[in-house]
Design goal:
This protein has about 550 residues and is α+β, with helices and mostly antiparallel strands. Helices cover about 55% and strands about 15% of the residues. It contains 13 helices and 12 strands. It binds adenosine-5'-diphosphate (ADP).
C-alpha cells in the first residue's frame, strides 16, 4: 500500500559538521574528557616528581658542598697553605691600599666587598692546588665548584676564570653558609646563561673561616629524570588516547548502528512499507526504542486492517439498502402505474431503505466524530444526571408501549454530581433503551435504573428479552458486529440511533469511555440482558 508521504522531514541546521553525527560527538566527548583527565594527571604527577627531584638535588648538592668544604679544610690535605698564602697577599694589598688612601687623604668606608673584588681581580695570584682540587671535584661530582675567600671573592673555579666568576659574597647560599645555615638557590649563571642550582658550605679550621665552597649544578641535569618521566608519560597518554579514540569510535558505531536501522525502517514505514521491523539487539534504551518502534508498526498495521474491515463493512451495509431501493424503483418503472397495491408496498419499502441509509449515515458520522474527538470539544460539565435519564425514558416511553412492553424507571430525583457531557450520556442511554425495546418481544419489560454507590454513579438498562449468547458477548461492542442479522433489521425508534448495522454498541462504548466511564454487560440466553454504565463521583 502507498500511504501519502511528502518529503522526508528536514533536520534542523547544524553549525558544525560533527554535530550531524552522534558517533563523532560521542567519540569527541569521550576523547576530550579522557585527554583532559590525562593532562591533569600528567601535570599533577609532573609537579610531584619535579619537587621531589628538586628537593633531592638540593640535598645532594648541599652534601657535595659540605664534602668539598671538609676536603678543603682537612689539615692533612695541605690546601691550608694556599689559603694562607692568599690571605697574606691580601693583607699586604690592604696595607698598600690603606697607605695610598692615607696619601690621597680620603677613605671610603663600607666598600670593602667592592675593594675585595677589585683586589682579587687585579691581584690574581696563582693557587694551582685549589684550582686542581676544584676541577677534580667538579669532574667527580658532575657539578661546578667555586672556591671563595671568606668575603666571597673567587679563588678557584672548575669552569671559569676568577674574573668571569666575579664577586659571590652577596649570593644567598654564600651568605647563608657564612651564617652557618643552609640555603639553595636557582638562578641564571650570567657567564654561561644557564639555569643553575647553587649550594655552599664554609671551609673552616677551628673557628677560623678559610673560605667557602660553592657548588652549582645545571638545572637541566637535575631535572633530566623528571623530563624523561614526563616524556614517557606523554607517550603513554598519546598511546592511551589513540586506544581510547579507537574504542570510542567502535562503541559509537555499535551504538549508532541500530539508530540508523531505525531511521531507515521509519522512512520505509513512512513510504507505506508496513512490513518493516527492526531487530531488538540490546536491553538498553536503544533496544527499548526499537521495541517501541516495532510495537508502533504492529499497531499501525492492525489499525489499517481494522480500517479496511470497517470500510468493507460500511460499503456492504450501504450497498444492501441501495440495491433494494434500486430493484424496487426499476419494478415501479416497469409497472407504469398498473398495480397500485404493489407500487404502494414498494414505495413504503423504499422509504424504509432510505430511513435505514439515513440512520447508517448518521451512525458513521457519529463514529467519525468520536474518532476525531470532535464531540468532546466542549468541556465536560459537573451535573446531576438524573433529569437527563428521566428525559430519555420519557422519549422512549411511547415506543415501548407501542411494542407492548412495560417500561420501568427507577431513577432517584437527585444523584451525586458527575463530570460528563450530558448529550453524549443521553445518546448512549437512548441507544441502549432502543436496543432493549427492539430485541425484547411484546409482553416483556424494560427497566432504566440509577443508583449512587460510595464512589460512583451506576446507570443500568435491563430487559427481559432473549439475551445474548456467551460466545457473542465479547464481540458485541465491535463495529458492525451483530448477533443475529435478521433480528437487527427492525425499525429503530429514533433516527440516528440503532441503524441495525451493528454500530450502536460500539458508539455507546466510545461515548462512555470518552466521559471517563465504563460499560459492562451481563446476559444469558432466555434471561434478558443488563448493561451497566458507571461514572466516578467528583472528588
Ligand atoms: P444494532 O445496531 O445491530 O442493534 P448494536 O451494536 O446496537 O447493533 O448491537 C450489537 C448486537 O448486540 C446486536 O446485533 C444484537 O444482536 C445484540 N444486542 C444488543 N442489545 C441487545 C439486547 N438488549 N438484547 C439482546 N441482544 C442485544
Amino acid at each position: 500500500m502507498n500511504i501519502t508521504t511528502g518529503e522526508t522531514p528536514q533536520l534542523p541546521p547544524a553549525r558544525w559538521p560533527w554535530q550531524r553525527s552522534l558517533q563523532v560527538r560521542l567519540a569527541l566527548a569521550y576523547g576530550i574528557l579522557f585527554l583532559a583527565a590525562l593532562i591533569a594527571l600528567t601535570i599533577w604527577i609532573g609537579q610531584i616528581v619535579y619537587s621531589t627531584q628538586l628537593n633531592a638535588a638540593e640535598h645532594d648538592l648541599q652534601v657535595t658542598a659540605f664534602l668539598a668544604g671538609n676536603a678543603l679544610e682537612d689539615p692533612l690535605s695541605g690546601y691550608e697553605s694556599e689559603f694562607q698564602r692568599y690571605q697574606d697577599r691580601e693583607s699586604e694589598h690592604e696595607d698598600d691600599g690603606r697607605s695610598q688612601d692615607d696619601e690621597n687623604g680620603k677613605e671610603e668606608p663600607g666598600n670593602t666587598a667592592a675593594q675585595a673584588v677589585g683586589l682579587a681581580n687585579a691581584q690574581i695570584i696563582a693557587l694551582p692546588r685549589l684550582q686542581q682540587m676544584a676541577a677534580a671535584y667538579a669532574t667527580d661530582t658532575g657539578t661546578r665548584v667555586t672556591i671563595l675567600d671568606p668575603n666571597g671573592n673567587p679563588l678557584a673555579d672548575s669552569l671559569l676564570s676568577e674574573a668571569e666568576v666575579g664577586f659571590q659574597g652577596d649570593q644567598p647560599e654564600v651568605m647563608a653558609a657564612l651564617a652557618g645555615v643552609e640555603q639553595h638557590e636557582v638562578r641564571t649563571d650570567p657567564a654561561t646563561g644557564k639555569q643553575m642550582l647553587y649550594a655552599a658550605a664554609p671551609i673552616q679550621q677551628n673557628d677560623k673561616v678559610l673560605g667557602i665552597a660553592q657548588v652549582g649544578k645545571s638545572l637541566d641535569a637535575v631535572l633530566e629524570p623528571t623530563r624523561q618521566l614526563l616524556f614517557s608519560l606523554v607517550a603513554a597518554v598519546l598511546l592511551a588516547l589513540a586506544a581510547t579514540s579507537a574504542l570510542a569510535v567502535w562503541i559509537g558505531r555499535r551504538l549508532v548502528k541500530p539508530i540508523r536501522e531505525l531511521e531507515e525502517a521509519a522512512l520505509a514505514v513512512a513510504q507505506g512499507d508496513l512490513s518493516r521491523s527492526v531487530p531488538v539487539a540490546t536491553a538498553d534504551e536503544v533496544g527499548a526504542l526499537a521495541n517501541a518502534f516495532n510495537h508502533m508498526v504492529d499497531h499501525l498495521r492492525a489499525m489499517i486492517a481494522q480500517q479496511r474491515v470497517f470500510v468493507a463493512n460500511a460499503s456492504h451495509e450501504l450497498r444492501t439498502p441501495l440495491t433494494n431501493i434500486k430493484l424496487r424503483t426499476e419494478v415501479l418503472r416497469t409497472l407504469g402505474g398498473e398495480d397500485t397495491a404493489l407500487a404502494t408496498k414498494y414505495i413504503a419499502e423504499i422509504d424504509t431503505g432510505a430511513d435505514r441509509l439515513t440512520r447508517l449515515a448518521n451512525d458513521l458520522l457519529d463514529l467519525a466524530r468520536l474518532d476525531g474527538d470532535a464531540w468532546a470539544l466542549s468541556p465536560a460539565e459537573k451535573i446531576d444526571i438524573s433529569p437527563v435519564l428521566l428525559d430519555a425514558a420519557n422519549m422512549m416511553r411511547m415506543r415501548a408501549e407501542g411494542a407492548g412492553l412495560k417500561l420501568t424507571v427507577d431513577v432517584p430525583p437527585r444523584l451525586p454530581l458527575i463530570c460528563v457531557h450530558s448529550e453524549q450520556i443521553e445518546s448512549a442511554v437512548l441507544n441502549l433503551l432502543d436496543n432493549a425495546i427492539k430485541y425484547t418481544p411484546g409482553g416483556g419489560s424494560v427497566r432504566l435504573a440509577a443508583v449512587a454507590q460510595s464512589n460512583l454513579v451506576e446507570i443500568s438498562v435491563s430487559d427481559s428479552g432473549p439475551g445474548i449468547p456467551p460466545a457473542d458477548l465479547p464481540n458485541i461492542f465491535d463495529r458492525f458486529y451483530r448477533v443475529d442479522k435478521s433480528r437487527s433489521r427492525q425499525r429503530s425508534a429514533k433516527p440516528g440511533v440503532g441503524s441495525g448495522a451493528g454500530l450502536g454498541l460500539s458508539i455507546v462504548k466510545t461515548l462512555i469511555e470518552q466521559n471517563d466511564g465504563a460499560i459492562t454487560v451481563e446476559s444469558a440466553p432466555g434471561k434478558g440482558t443488563v448493561f451497566v454504565l458507571s461514572f466516578p463521583l467528583l472528588a
